[in-house]
Specification:
Heat Shock Protein 90, single chain, 8 strands, 5 helices, 232 residues
Amino acid sequence: MGERTEQVITLSLPSSMQHIDLLKVIVTEIVKETKLPEDIQEQINLAVIEAGTKSTQHSNKEEPEKQWTFQLILTENTLTIVPDDEGEEFAREETEQVITLSLPSSMQHVYLLDVVVTEILKEIDFTEDIQEQINLAVIEAGTNAIKHGNKENPVKKATIQFTLSEDRLVTIIKDEGDGFARQEVADPLDPENLLKSSGRGLFLMEACMDSVTYEDNGTIIKMVKYTRTPEL
């Protein structure tokens, strides 16, 4: 008998009704991966939205300092949804909103990151071209974390945290790999490296974002994009 494999996707959102749509979009995409009939998929979606609404309005009472979390556990034939109704205190500035997505290290889930980024960017005052730059940078960083950092090891997680504030979007991508030294990555613009793929993703991220820093031996990447040019 084969070993039962689980894929766990975790989504953490501020306790605000404005983020219920994001939960709905994520659940809709995930249930598409199951073999469940469409009417069952719709029932699951409705149940999750109801649970999220209940958690936000009643358990956390729409208190912005609290988060609510959903775990979506996929196996070959089932989808299990585990909500956290108690809420978690989260230290942050009053005007900040923090959204966290944790994904199994499988390239098949990268599209979920795209879905989340697209929804988040609707809430921030960025032009369309800036939104495209952010999306490219985040997808590239997430892909690197899964493919190069965690080497697509399904036991390891790639965690992406978005912090939204009035003047910026801060994205932190964390993997569970061995890390790397940024200065040792080849410059893709150097003529001798033009035919190599190494370094192109990092170059793209740094070109698209206002700030990119590498922490904890490169296993944590912090990217910042401002809604307006910061004062020096």
